[in-house]
Design goal:
heterodimer, A: mainly alpha, MetI-like fold, 9 helices, B: alpha/beta, Rossmann fold, Alpha-Beta Plaits, 2 domains, 4-stranded antiparallel β-sheet, 14 strands
């Protein structure tokens, strides 16, 4: 039980909030960067290996293209169906292997990324799909290679939609980041859970909720602003 | 020169397949404007997309300047496409790029250095009359301006052939006219070979040297426009000179006379009246400038049957003039 009348209560609260916010931001930024890169890559592979994709038949083999598409699609689906709390526990050995320790701040990046990548991949895939097929056709007509089609036509045209989708993904990462409490006391979610729930301090919960709402609003506002600035439709 | 030989393309549809191209062959001479006309669903779009292999035919060959595109490996096919520009009904401009950047795209793809790219983009934008809109985005342009950007992009890499997929179908009549005039100028100034598909006969009238009629995936008629005009029974010619429905006129022969060049001044009707004593009435007439030549068609109604008028009609037949009996008198009614 935390006593709010204790003179050390408020300084401790601010101190704790500051540190937890920092940790949440670390999780958000690192996971965000990893997710943006790898999620987009997965989306591009899924898109390109579709029936009429630009890499429908890599090395001249449609069977290979179809296999890549099916396997990658299955991985995405399976990962997306496992609840994050279960996924995180299951990934403890993987985190240990990749970053040395599962129960550290950097250890949380692994499950967060592995959950967020397929989430963003599906959203990015939808965004890339929205690029009018006529533009790809125009690109083919001027003799663009498959890589040029993706890099110079499809991705640039999808940028506003990709940004909106990525904003949604970041909000989801903020959400997931609360669940890392399972492996350690990191970030705002843990701070609220441990101090607010386990130690009965409503003030802690209110403070964290206010901060999280502000964070999500900020992300959404920046995302929207950026997307509409880059959209020339 | 573009030669298509025996192109066949089928698409699977529910419960079978549809033959979009059914043994299509055509030859487009260097420097000409070749129009493929036909109703929607005739296979026009498939045909033009086959000419740069955006659509691969099931069988048949496409030769551009003697090179068979169907046998080229992917990388070489891409290089061949640098020599074939294409414009589209919906323009297909990249919304994320400015006009300049859109036009520069083919040059980026071919690896042209930045400075030269800049010079070429300036040059080609001036050519299509958009020198001052380089920094605009496509959404800020009118339909006609967008198509001009499309044309500039298609021509940036200096192709010898331009394919036009219904390029004016989304434009209003005045804009269509200006775009067609631009295509005509580019064809003349650059010696550009143009293949266009359209469902508008106005396009054929305005710019085409040759034309082909596509129907159910088959070419049912093809030739140079001035020749088609004086070819008996030509459906392209009929579409070029719409004289309306022929009302049945019992006891009379309906004749259509097509004049090429300016012999339209000849007193054909006067001769029929004076020399043959015929009671001629004019049912319709139309004069068009085809390929810069005045060409006219007139529909007349003569009393009596075709046999009775044979001598009079024979006297009208001359080289460069087509005399066609299009409606025969009903012998019962003539009595």
């Amino acid at each position: 039980m935390i006593d709010p009348t204790d003179p050390a209560f408020w300084p401790r609260l601010w101190q704790g909030l500051l540190q937890a916010t920092g940790e949440t931001l670390v999780m958000l930024v690192v996971t965000g960067v990893v997710t943006a890169v790898l999620g987009l890559l997965v989306a591009l592979v899924l898109l390109a290996t579709e029936e009429d994709g630009v890499f429908a038949a890599p090395f001249g083999s449609r069977a290979l293209g179809r296999t890549i598409n099916l396997v990658l699609g299955a991985i995405v689906n399976v990962t997306r169906s496992v609840p994050f709390i279960i996924l995180m526990v299951a990934l403890i050995p993987v985190s240990r292997f990749l970053v040395g320790s599962a129960f550290s701040l950097q250890g949380t990046i692994v499950p967060l990324s592995i959950a967020a990548i397929p989430f963003f991949a599906r959203i990015a895939e939808i965004a890339l799909h929205e690029v009018p097929p006529g533009l790809v056709e125009a690109g083919r007509s001027i003799g663009a290679s498959p890589v040029q089609l993706l890099a110079r036509v499809v991705v640039p045209e999808a940028v506003p939609a990709l940004i909106r989708g990525f904003t949604t993904t970041l909000v989801t990462i903020v959400n997931y980041s609360a669940i890392v409490t399972v492996v350690g006391n990191y970030g705002l979610g843990s701070f609220a859970y441990i101090n607010g729930y386990q130690r009965y301090s409503v003030i802690h919960i209110i403070a964290v909720v206010v901060l999280l709402v502000a964070l999500v609003y900020l992300l959404q506002a920046v995302g929207n602003r950026l997307a509409s600035r880059l959209s020339h439709r | 020169m573009i030669v298509a030989e025996h192109l066949v393309k089928t698409y699977p549809v529910a419960g079978g397949s549809v033959r979009a191209l059914d043994d299509v062959s055509l030859t487009v001479a260097d420097g000409e404007v070749f129009g493929v006309v036909g109703e929607s669903g005739a296979g026009k779009s498939t045909l033009i997309r086959t000419l740069n292999l955006l659509e691969r035919p099931d069988s048949g060959r496409v030769l551009v300047d003697g090179v068979d595109l169907t046998t080229l490996p992917e990388a070489e096919l891409r290089r061949a496409r640098h020599r074939i520009g294409m414009i589209f009904q919906q323009f297909n401009l990249l919304s994320s790029r400015t006009v300049r950047e859109n036009v520069a795209l083919p040059l980026e793809v071919t690896g042209v250095p930045r400075a030269e790219r800049r010079r070429r983009v300036d040059e080609i934008l001036d050519l299509v009359g958009l020198g001052d809109r380089g920094e605009s985005y496509p959404t800020q342009l009118s339909g006609g301006q967008k198509q001009r950007v499309g044309i500039a992009r298609a021509l940036a890499a200096r192709p010898s052939v331009l394919l036009s997929d219904e390029a004016t179908s989304a434009l209003d009549p005045a804009t269509t006219e200006s775009i067609l005039a631009l295509l005509r100028d580019l064809n003349r100034e650059l010696g550009l070979t143009v293949v266009l598909i359209t469902h508008e006969m106005d396009v054929v009238r305005a710019v085409c040297d040759s034309a082909a009629l596509l129907e159910n995936g088959r070419i049912v008629e093809t030739g140079r426009v001035p020749d088609l005009v004086v070819t008996p029974g030509s459906r392209i010619s009929r579409a070029l000179f719409p004289l309306g429905e022929r009302a049945p006129e019992p006891g009379r022969t309906i004749v259509e006379i097509t004049f090429t060049g300016l012999d339209s001044g000849e007193p054909v009707i006067a001769r029929l009246v004076r020399d043959h004593g015929l009671d001629v009435s004019i049912l319709g007439a139309r004069i068009e400038a085809l390929g810069g030549r005045q060409t006219g068609r007139i529909r007349l109604s003569l009393p009596g049957s075709a046999e009775q008028n044979a001598a009079a009609l024979a006297s009208l037949r001359e080289p460069g003039r087509l005399v066609e009996v299009v409606g025969l008198a009903d012998p019962e009614a003539a009595r």
